Amino acid sequence: MSENGGTFDLVILGAGSGGYAAAIRASELGMKVALIEKNKLGGTCLHVGCIPTKALLHSAEVADAARDSETFGVKATFDGIDMAGVNAYKDKVVSRMFKGLTGLIKAHGITVVEGEGRLTGRDRVTVGDTVYTGANILLASGSKPKTLGLDIDGEKVITSEHALEMQNVPESVVVLGGGVIGVEFASVYRSYGAEVTIVEALPHLLPLEDESTSKQLERAFRKRGIKYELNTPFESVKTTDSGVSVSLQGGKALEAETMLVAIGRAPVSDGLGYEDNGVEMERGFVKVDENMHTGVGNIYAVGDLIPTLQLAHAGFAEGIYVAEQIAGLNPPAIDYDGVPRITYSEPEVASVGLTSATAQERGYETVEIDYNLGGNGKSQILQTQGSIKVIAQKDGPVLGVHMIGSRVGELTAEGQLIYNWEALPSEVAQLVHPHPTQSEAIGEAHLALAGKPLHVHE
């Protein structure tokens, strides 16, 4: 006999970025909400994604600063990486944020259900023997690392989740995949002292970014001693006594202690009852319309489960959107081009809006400027190289902002305002940027686009 877990305005399956954002917003709008999670509140982002990886990247930045301290006139010695200490620091950050989130969810009076839920009807989710009925259902079951069907042993062949728990730094690593996850981990491993080779089947690292940015990242990585095989599909891996032997198309083989499989994340949707209840799927993703609606009953889906940008902040936005949609607020649709994208490697890569190639495909006549950070005082102080590229419609608004350099991720805050508010280069050129900051480089690029360059040789 099934037990009745209660009736709710909204039952959410998954408490990651999309699920918990929907729960909080729905609760603010007066709804009675049940939030079902088999692991921990916060999902991938908080526990095995954004937060712990960025903690590793910050410790990597500290390691590089210690190594290079004499550049800045500071005598310091670098004695190596204490992985137990790194993990303690990372876990402390995660744990503090987890406590904060748990308190927040509790303060909103949201019913949290621990356990594995399945969709068992158009208006119900079952956990064990208990049925939770919802006037609306939100599927937010998230993602897991893709593995290509490889035998992941957690030691010689690993995913990002194993890499977050490493107890010692491998001497050499092959990183399979040159997207965001692969590039970030390659950066960490190199800062920690490992020999790193990235294998990418497409022609460039970060293939979704503007090609000019990708080329600059490749140059920067080459300087850092990070090797890469581009345009080279992976064929197979076999474990050896000392680690792994990785075979690439074309006959090349790479030997290393570890291979990190970082080819993206796949939706978690198998066996959760989605298809049984008429929800349409494609390659494991749940298909939705622009309102995040599945087309079945009052069932919605958000986050890594749907084929939109796999970013925590996109999940937040989608979760909030669904809560407001259910409440009848008729929120504006999300413009995914206007969602900032950041890779937290050294150097960082950050962008918002269209790439040159996409702008061309969409038929825009464009003008663009690539402002070199060599002319930016703060970047010189930080000893970083890179550029800020701005693409604008001819006689029209800015279509894209693409950046590379240490710490440029923070600059996407302004970049997204410029893109999303359809600013003209001349309007941004009027704004006074504080000196010395890297944000000045955004101002300078727009000054140049508006025809009045300051620190630029014409």
TrEMBL record:
Keywords: Cytoplasm, Disulfide bond, FAD, Flavoprotein, NAD, Nucleotide-binding, Oxidoreductase, Redox-active center. Residues 8-319 form the FAD/NAD(P)-binding domain. One of its GO terms (molecular function) is flavin adenine dinucleotide binding. Residues 339-445 form the Pyridine nucleotide-disulphide oxidoreductase dimerisation domain. It comes from the Bacteria. Pfam families: Pyr_redox_2, Pyr_redox_dim. Its EC number is 1.8.1.4. It is found in: Cytoplasm. One of its GO terms (cellular component) is cytoplasm. The keyword NAD applies. It catalyses: N(6)-[(R)-dihydrolipoyl]-L-lysyl-[protein] + NAD(+) = N(6)-[(R)-lipoyl]-L-lysyl-[protein] + NADH + H(+). Belongs to the class-I pyridine nucleotide-disulfide oxidoreductase family. This is Dihydrolipoyl dehydrogenase. It comes from Streptomonospora salina.
